[in-house]
Amino acid sequence: MKSVILKCVVATISVAMLGTAALSFAHADELSDVKAKGTLVVGVKGDSRPWGYLDPQGKPIGMEVDLAGDVAKQLGVKLQVVVVQSSNRIEFLNQGRVDMLIATMYDTKERRRAIDMIQPHYYSAATNVLAPKSAKLKEWKDLTGKPVCGQQGSVYNKWIEKTYGAKAMSLPTIEEGYAALRAGNCVAFVYNDLLLEMAAKEPQWKDYEVPLASEDRQYHSIGVRKGEADSAFGKALSEIVTNWHKSGYLIDLNAKWGVPPNSYLEEEHKKLSN
Amino acid sequence: MNTIAKWFHGLYDTTGINLSFIYDSYDRGRFLAGIQLTLELALICIVISIAIGVIGAWLQGSRFRITNALVRAYIALFRNTPPIVQLFFFFFVVGHFFTFHTASGVFRLSNLSWAIISLSFYYGSFNIENFRASIEAVPEATIQAAEALGYRKYQIYFYIVLPLAVRFTLPSLANNLASLVKSTSLAYVIAVPEVLYVSSEIWSEQLNVTEMMFVILFFYVFLVGLLVYAMHRLEAYLRIPGYSEGA
User: Span B74-85, mean pLDDT?
Assistant: First the structure.
């Protein structure tokens, strides 16, 4: 009996491994796959205004959706966007539900073990907090030991815990994180500085501010499955991103979506256009 | 510990199976803290929900109309709303108004307190109905027999009704408590760092979703299995030889 079970387990594992091998073989040339099916499926965010969010009809729009559209246009295929979350986007990519990610994703060491990051980076942001003016935060150390809200699956939470000893409290989405901040369940909401600076300008946040100097600068990459950065698909994407920097397309798009000027984009543009 | 940690790190490097909560001290610390919090949350909620059940069933059986109506209203409110909606409601709405500015600072309940309140009240409402049904299931003939033997009212309640009702209620109570233990994972949505929450923190950094899903699944199978086993042992211990329940 035991050996039968063992045989079954071994057989199942072998089949699964063969399946994976076949799958990765079939995906060896993603570029021709995408061109053959005529559609590029891109994972974008649905809760990160203005990079990727939903319009009142529930359709994803934003800077990164525009970028995804430009990639599809340059590859000569139709665009299909799929809304992903910070906590599940890598799974969406690795399970083959999307061909690539443009989903406010930082290029980190841990993520590079699971997927490939297209170089160069297309965007950059740093960490800051949104806090009530009454909290009178002066420096990052003021947050030590205090509850700080965040969004599940984003990198800011661990950073603020490890660097400044704050108690990170991560809620499922940004909206719920904001709600917890408003309800007074935490002293601040930690996220990327650009988003928070834009939020602070809106009337509903008039009693709130972005009080600290941004830290921990990180860079965004287009994510593709492991091994695809060096394929024809990855090379095509890399060239597209380089041209975005060169032509100033990213700077224009940044302004179009009302984001404060991003020094990283200016620097890259200057570097590449010379 | 070091050799174990090394072995699991090697497992990750060679097979890609990433059990970071074993080899990484930071992940291990928070994973254990998550397990501890899940156990605490479950235990506290079990105690409070049973207390609510006993008191509620007692109030419901009393002669006063007003307490009767209050208990019924409580059951209607808590049994008829999903626990996840209650958690959000307590945390975001009630929590907002339940903030007091005192001389020594601001007083407010933590997200853990709201999770305890919400889950205890929710499962307490089920317990009330369970206990009431069990008390009513004590056969009329048994009570009449006690009356014939000259027992007083309170004696009948404490020596005849309650001991039988407790036995009748155990199977449905076990179900209810198993459901409660599993529902502690809902506290995840209001950022209570129980085992599901810490696992999600770990998998969003380590990207080991598959591994962590297995770990959480087995953790709950084990935990609820333990509870169900304990309840069965209790049932067996309290069994009255020759008395078939509810007959």
Answer: 94
Q: In chain A, what percentage of residues exceed pLDDT 90?
A: 74
Inspect the interface and report whether the beta carbons of B207 and A110 lie closer than 8 Å: yes
Mean confidence (pLDDT) of chain B: 91
Is the pLDDT assigned to residue A27 strictly greater than 80?
no
% pLDDT > 70, chain B:
98
- Report the pLDDT value the prediction gives residue A12, as an integer from 0 to 100: 59
Do A137 and A210 contact (CB within 8 A), yes or no?
A: no
Mean pLDDT of all residues in A226-246? 95
Mutation for testing the B interface, residue in A85, A185, A189 having most B CBs under 10 Å: A185
Which DSSP helix (H) or strand (E) runs through A176? Answer: helix A174-182
Q: Which residue in B92, B111, B206 is closest to A169 by CB distance?
A: B111
What is the C-alpha separation between A208 and B8, in angstroms, rounded?
Answer: 46
Crossing angle for the helix pair B25-60 and B111-136, to the nearest 10 degrees: 40
Examine the pLDDT at A154 and tell me if it is beyond 90: no
Dist. CA B39–CA B237, nearest whole Å: 25
Q: What is the ipTM of this complex?
A: 0.72
A114 vs B contacts (CB less than 8 Å)? 207
Backbone phi and psi for residue A43, each to the nearest 5 degrees, phi listed first: -85, 125
Q: Which residues contact B236 (CB under 8 A, 6 or more apart)?
A: none
B29: which chain A residues are within 8 Å (Cβ-Cβ)? none
C-alpha A173/C-alpha A151 separation (Å) is: 6
Q: What is the DSSP string of B8-37?
A: HHHHHHHH----HHHH-HHHHHHHHHHHHH
d(CA A10, CA B174): 38
Pick the CATH number of A31-122+221-273 from 3.40.50.300, 3.40.190.10, 3.40.50.720, 3.30.365.10: 3.40.190.10
Strand order in the sheet with A78-84: A78-84, A39-45, A100-101, A223-225, A115-117
Q: What is the pLDDT confidence band of residue A17, given thresholds at 50, 70 and 90?
A: low
CATH placement of domain B2-9+19-238: 1.10.3720.10
**Is the CB of residue A183 less than 8 Å away from at least one CB of chain B?**
yes
Closest residue in chain B to residue A172, using alpha carbons only: B189
Q: What percent of chain B has pLDDT over 90?
A: 69
